[in-house]
Amino acid sequence: VRQDACPGALRPHEAADGLLVRVRLPGGLATPTQLVTLADLASEFSDGHLELTSRANVQLRALAADSVDEVAARLTACGLLPSASHERVRNILASPMGGHGPGGRWLVRPVVAELDERMRADPALAGLSGRFLFAVDDGSCDVAGLGADLTLYPLSGNEIALLLAGVDCGLRVAPAGAAALAVAAASAFLAERADGTWRLADLVDGPARVARRLARGQVSLSVQLPDSVFEPPVGLLAETGGTHAVGALVPLGRLSSAQAETLAELGETGRGEVVVTPWRTVLVGGLAKTTAAEWLSRLGLPTERDSPWAGVFACAGRPRCAKALADVRADAAEVVRRTGRGALPVHWAGCDRQCGKPAGAVEVVATGNGYEVRDGDGTRLFSAAELAATVAAAREGMG
Ligand code: SF4
């Protein structure tokens, strides 16, 4: 079994540009105070930016070795590092609108909080891999299709299905018992895996074995999830109850300290929270419509759905990652400048590992001798100069 090298706040990753720490944000949630702390840390110790990840966590990079203890102490002081033993396993995706948007059938924030708390209270669960992933979907099916090991999905406001590696094994629970069932399933996974397997999908017959161990499931395939549609919540968004949310794109997932501070200010106006989404966007809800409309242009981030930055992802690339064969962020930004919004997401990677690639994305991979563009039509090699038209066509499904 390979060693799980997922970075954390207490276990930095050594990248080419310095140490990288990853801070888990269960449900993608940060309070305004926590976001300001992160912004301060980015300014003082990092490169002035927070990196948003595909699991709605944040990273600080380019840290010096002697700053790591101070960073951890300040994260702990603001509540972002509540458990040293469990910090890397607190990977919980949640629907960014939290149940307040269209399709919402239950409010997911309390479920995320309970799940996080129950996980931290169980010493054995510190043994999960940093890659093990929970998802709590509000019924809009926005995070249910993101490949989590354990997904809570509401069939109605009263009945929650627990999906095991995306498979419906007939597990049903009332909302009040949902977090406990997910934690029980994680424990069952640990009991079933004999060889340190990281993910439920990699365990032979994993979903059925976990369901049997929970002794309540029978294999069925009754939950038919609607197809996940790639449409991150961006712009002015109506919430049930008459409030509104503001969603913004974060180009290439890099949020500057100044932008984070502005978002924190907006978060104070809403529900006292800022949400990072798995699509590397940000969202603040619970706002009066006029306030939300006014802030659309004050954030300093793209808030138009047809922005060419929508659906454009890139790994760290050169010079930040030693494995990178190109400065993919610069090349992706150049192509964005020359094209409009694409229908399909695109992911630029500096090498074949393709860290952080979202499902269904057109793949643009550096080879050291130009880029390979991989889509439904196969794989073709291009020089950086030839890329814009090819990537644009591939994102329209016309590669
Ligand atoms: S995909 Fe390759 S170049 Fe990009 S961050 Fe991962 S290892 Fe580094």
What does this structure look like?
With 399 residues, this protein is α+β, with helices and mostly antiparallel strands. The protein has helices spanning 32-45, 68-77, 109-121, 178-192, 206-214, 257-269, 289-296, 328-338, 387-395, and strands at residues 13-15, 18-23, 29-30, 49-52, 58-63, 92-94, 134-136, 150-154, 160-164, 167-173, 235-238, 244-249, 254-256, 274-276, 281-287, 312-314, 346-349, 362-366, 371-375, 378-382. The strands form 4 sheets. A 5-stranded antiparallel sheet has the order 1-2-5-4-13. It has a 5-stranded antiparallel sheet with strand order 3-14-15-12-11. The longest helix is centred in the middle third of the chain and has 15 residues, at 178-192. It is globular. It starts with 12 loop residues before the first strand and ends with a helix. The relative contact order is 0.11. Iron/sulfur cluster binds at residues 315-317, 321, 323-324, 349-351, 353-355.
Number of helices: 9
What characterizes the major β-sheet?
5 strands, antiparallel
Order of SSEs, N→C? EEEHEEHEHEEEEHHEEEHEEHEHEEEEH
Structural class comes to: alpha+beta
CA-to-CA gap between the ends?
Answer: 38 Å
Number of strands: 20
Quote the average pLDDT. 93
In the predicted model, the low-confidence regions spanning at least 5 consecutive residues are: none
Shape descriptor: globular
- Give, in spatial order, the strands making up the sheet with the most strands: 1-2-5-4-13
> In percent, how much strand structure appears in the residues?
15-25%
Radius of gyration: 21 Å
Ligand types = iron/sulfur cluster
